[in-house]
Amino acid sequence: MTGSIRRWQGIPSILLLLALWQAGAMLAGSRLLPGPMAVFTVMAQETASGELPFHLGFSLARVGIAFVVAMIVGTAIGLVLGRSRGIDRWLYPWLIVLLNIPALIVIILTYIWMGLTEAALLIAVAVNKIPSVAVTLREGAGTLDRDFAEVAQIYEFGPLKTLRTVVLPQLAPYLLAAARNGLSLVWKIVLVAELLGRSNGVGFQLQTYFQLFDVPRVMAYAIAFVGCVLVLEAFLFRPVEQSAGQWRRQP
Amino acid sequence: MTGSIRRWQGIPSILLLLALWQAGAMLAGSRLLPGPMAVFTVMAQETASGELPFHLGFSLARVGIAFVVAMIVGTAIGLVLGRSRGIDRWLYPWLIVLLNIPALIVIILTYIWMGLTEAALLIAVAVNKIPSVAVTLREGAGTLDRDFAEVAQIYEFGPLKTLRTVVLPQLAPYLLAAARNGLSLVWKIVLVAELLGRSNGVGFQLQTYFQLFDVPRVMAYAIAFVGCVLVLEAFLFRPVEQSAGQWRRQP
Amino acid sequence: GEPTAVRVGILKFGTVSWEMDTIEAHRLDEKNGIRLVTSTYATNEAAKIALLTQAVDIIVTDWPWAARQRAEGRSLSFFPYSKATGMLLVKPGSAIGALSDLKGKRIGVAGGPLDKSWLLLRALSRRETGEDVASSAKPVFGAPPLLGEEFSQGRIDAVLTYWHYAARLQADGAKLLLTVADIVKGLGARPDVPILGYVFLEPWALQNREALDGFLRASAEAKALLARSDQEWIRLEPLLGTSDPKVRAVLKEGYREGIIERWSGEERRDAARLYDILAELGGEALVGPARRLDPAVFWPSHSEWGGQ
Amino acid sequence: MKIVIRRKEYPGREGARERCILRNFELSLGQGETCAVIGPSGIGKSSLLQIVAGLDMDFQGLVSDRPKPVGYLFQASRLLPWLTALQNLEVVLPRSRGGAREWLSRIGLDDAAHLYPSHLSVGMARRIALARALCVEPRLLLLDEPFAALDRDTARQMQALVREEVARLGATLLIATHSWSDVAALVERTVTLGGAPAGIVEDSPVRQRRAGE
Amino acid sequence: MKIVIRRKEYPGREGARERCILRNFELSLGQGETCAVIGPSGIGKSSLLQIVAGLDMDFQGLVSDRPKPVGYLFQASRLLPWLTALQNLEVVLPRSRGGAREWLSRIGLDDAAHLYPSHLSVGMARRIALARALCVEPRLLLLDEPFAALDRDTARQMQALVREEVARLGATLLIATHSWSDVAALVERTVTLGGAPAGIVEDSPVRQRRAGE
Ligand SMILES: Nc1ncnc2c1ncn2[C@@H]1O[C@H](COP(=O)(O)OP(=O)(O)OP(=O)(O)O)[C@@H](O)[C@H]1O
Ligand SMILES: Nc1ncnc2c1ncn2[C@@H]1O[C@H](COP(=O)(O)OP(=O)(O)OP(=O)(O)O)[C@@H](O)[C@H]1O
Ligand SMILES: [Mg+2]
Ligand SMILES: [Mg+2]
């Protein structure tokens, strides 16, 4: 099977999901669960009016920046903690504290200090997300095989080449898990941050329509983002996953 | 170093964190960032009045149940998807959709369908959390070494013994990452679920005091939970992590 | 026999909880042949979910929402609770003295762009200055507590927020520019048009007519008590959510001013007029399929109920 | 036991075509028979053993009447790295049987009981893997290059151990090896693989050198 | 190069005391000298090579004048499993040098270029690991049981390859082995380890059998 076919292999599954959703909506009665038709109609309206692209664009930009920053910083912290007992002893408890402080509080505090600004949002989201990436990568760093590190040492790979050819391939599954979970987490935190103190973005719209109990619109916005993630899955995460795992001895 | 000393080794780090926080609070001025003294005073008041134990108890019970259920179900799903290409092709996209649907929406919809019941809360939280565990464990399952599976097959371990002696030791770092991230995620979702439809629990209190902008109280409730997690770290996750990793060839 | 239970969803430190507490303290529910059961929720949305899932019988919210839900098939009814909703505040000593001064300023708006007070303010500014504040000024939407903080720190010039949040800012010296009642008056409607009210499912109301009437009587009696007795407010102190006596005083004032004196056919007609304004500005996003106000949303829907 | 492999292919990977490794391989082994498979590196000895063990089912052909239980010394010992030497033996033994400690002393590694595999020398790990294969009292014993990692004296002791156990259990023995010492010490028959894809190029009894050893 | 190991201990683990493996080990090797370390399984040969390579610094003693670069054939090949055979060679070669393909054909594995290590036979992986150790043009070559996994013919070819490269590069060679064939073919000096903790029990030149091979 070639890569490009694999890329689209999720489509039947998504179609099935839509069909099930439609059936469920028809059974439940549209008032309780708006079906995909109702939601897509609303989505089309909101797209035509320019509202959805506008707000989705803001949210995507925020998610994108916060995600990249959080992945890089979180991976770095996780690796350091996973490799150095001494630093781990001092910083790891902080990580756990940070990990378990509700997003709400971090967001409120950053907004209070920095005002209702874009920078405050990005910082709040990154602070919420970094511990989660770091915890996952810390576990990954703990499994790095010294045997291979010694190969790198003997053949004098130097830090960068070691990272690229020895460390990252071993961390690939952890990075993928952190990236997928991370994307969804960043997105959820961006929503909260938007609904608490921004005047645009999907979270802001969700809050508005949630107050009105306009479930189809709420779902339209959420699903627009989910669609973006599915595209990212097909074009980024899936291919990376496949090429990162093909050396394993598997059926 | 014996286990019991290791268990307490996080304490100096936490004390340092408190000291830094106090210093920061004194610099920032108490209105912007209440210091640990202020927060602990409030915490003592709320404990004396019985409010904090009451609400924290409810939240802990919810977190506990949802966490255990989500870990078990999520691990099972993750393993199945990670091992079976066919099922993965059909179910994995659903997982990604579920992973990226905002907690808010899942919670609202479950409440609307099932009413404002405890069961609805638990289901909503589990549905939010299961995909995240599953995604992590799916990556873990992808790294399971067939060499060892063959050993289990030759010596006829049977499914249960294979799981215990061959699969779980390989998955330990993934389980730990999923558990730590999971606990914090369950807790955050429980907060949202409580503020959207329960009359008790930390989430309910947080939102109430947020509306009054009583930041010390908001922090007191959050920190009480963080304290519980730190205890869990010291008595459960840390020991498990240490015993699960000691066979590795590491400095 | 057993008095019927009436389940009311409230917020812990919300104004409704004061009234309910007064009812319970004076056993006004028993006197009116009902048993009051309150459930506390953390947010307005939680209370709405509770109503729609019939976890409670009555909540307090605004009538445009009830009207919209009704148009979407959930037959909700509305009975007025208070006309106190929002206030537009500016900094003490601020140069802003009228709507026209808001031009180019940052205005914090609680509740988002479809908030009723905000829409009415926009309508009024159009009528008075010919410009829509939404475009002439810079609105900043956010959670009310955060907007309060932004305002205190001087990062926004004015704030349009719910009156009990405004109370705290007023106690800190913020200057009241307009109340929503002023705005309504400015739009040519009677100032007694309520914005908030008890909302319940009509079928429930029809089945439990006596209980509902009993509840509304108890509510009216509690309001009357709170309006005349300062003693009551001392009892309520723990529920006001503040230890600042200045804020308490403002809250008491605000509550009393919100009490509705008239609820006649004229107020209903004015309500319909306001609804048209909201529908025009908020569009379908706000009102959904209910382009016009269905008068049946007001309880009781057919008799000419004359008010208190 | 009858082994018939009409065709064994490995799937092609990027840049490499599907490769046929074994073809028209047929071998019958009576219960208690001992046989060595010989052939150069990469010819398919380990692949053959995987098939005989029933681990690899992806081939055209059939393995019938496989005796049970099977003891398999993999070429890369495959001790479970998260279990100590002792636990690695205990884990394959039925709880009731026990005897893991005795096995450790039979291979001369009492001291290593509590070491994890990553702390063992390669030869030590090899011996523990051998003990693991023997301690289940196999009726079919598959040994893949069993003593290559061992020095001559240790290898001799281990050969003796295998001979003794195989005789005691009446086990069928199949060894993949390139050591003539193994052949001489342990088997009565050798099968030589050759060609590409590989098949049997020679199947001959071993002159009884055991006595003269 | 001078190797002085006064004491090498491994830390104790649960249920096992700290163990001293090597004691009073002293060895000087001139540049270009070839030497084999001999001793029974588990005595400490691999531990010694790790120290000589500079990978294990946790011992009392000193390794001075270590020639560079080092080529090290680990006892468990340690190919990077996520790289193909070819990439495993390329990764150790400076980009400019190249020559990975030629090395593959020198060890007779052109066909295996695009296979991952998990798809190689043990002997094939061994040869690639050997090529990896040689292709960096080492001045110090450490080989840990280099040919144990290979059949006799392949082993002979590889021995020849090593001999040729060592001679060409003037490299110092240290082999841990238990194969007399390796000793005869490759080294001019053997050091025998013995005792517990191990030390040198014999240090003797090899009678020149190379010619008679
Ligand atoms: N990382 C380690 N931790 C603890 N003990 C170790 C470690 N590595 C090796 N040992 C111990 O050191 C001793 C020597 O091991 P080493 O691998 O050097 O032996 P060797 O001479 O190479 O044996 P073989 O011929 O079997 O490869 C063994 O008893 C082994 O258990
Ligand atoms: N999982 C696999 N996928 C693809 N090819 C494989 C796989 N396993 C083995 N091969 C190929 O099959 C051939 C035979 O391998 P095998 O391990 O059976 O050889 P062997 O005779 O045991 O060699 P050695 O003596 O070196 O162990 C080799 O060419 C190898 O590349
Ligand atoms: Mg083999
Ligand atoms: Mg060794």
UniProtKB/TrEMBL annotation, chains A, B:
TM spans (from-to): 60-82, 94-114, 218-240
Tagged with keyword Cell membrane: yes
Locations listed in the record: Cell membrane
Membrane topology type: Multi-pass membrane protein
Any single GO BP term: transmembrane transport
Coiled coil: none
GO CC, one annotated term: plasma membrane
CDD domains: TM_PBP2
Stated family: Belongs to the binding-protein-dependent transport system permease family.
Name of the protein: ABC transporter permease subunit
Automatic annotation (TrEMBL), chains D, E:
Keyword Transport on entry: yes
Keywords, in A-Z order: ATP-binding, Nucleotide-binding, Transport
Record's keyword annotation contains Repeat: no
A Pfam match: ABC_tran
Domain (ABC transporter): residue spans on this chain: 5-213
InterPro entries: AAA+_ATPase, ABC_transporter-like_ATP-bd, ABC_transporter-like_CS, ABC_transporter_ATP-bind, P-loop_NTPase
PROSITE patterns with a match to the protein in the record: ABC_TRANSPORTER_1, ABC_TRANSPORTER_2
GO MF entries: ATP binding; ATP hydrolysis activity
SMART domains, A to Z: AAA
Family classification: Belongs to the ABC transporter superfamily.
Official protein name in the record: ATP-binding cassette domain-containing protein
Source species of the chain: Microvirga thermotolerans
